[in-house]
Amino acid sequence: MDPVFRYFERKAFGHGLRGRSTWLVLGAAVWMINRARRNDRLVYRTKIQPGDRFTISSSTPSTPAR
Description:
Layout lengths: L1 H16 L3 H17 L29
Helix pairs in contact: 1-2
């Protein structure tokens, strides 16, 4: 389903940027739907200073999340 939303988003913004306000509104609505559907969750955020070191690791939980 995501490729369909991305297709409509590109087409709608393309028409909208050429002066068709209805298409621009439709493109913005599809963009917001795409943003809301993402499952990305921010886990940690920090500012990095020169010389800072950090490790990124990933592990699988021992029991499945429900």
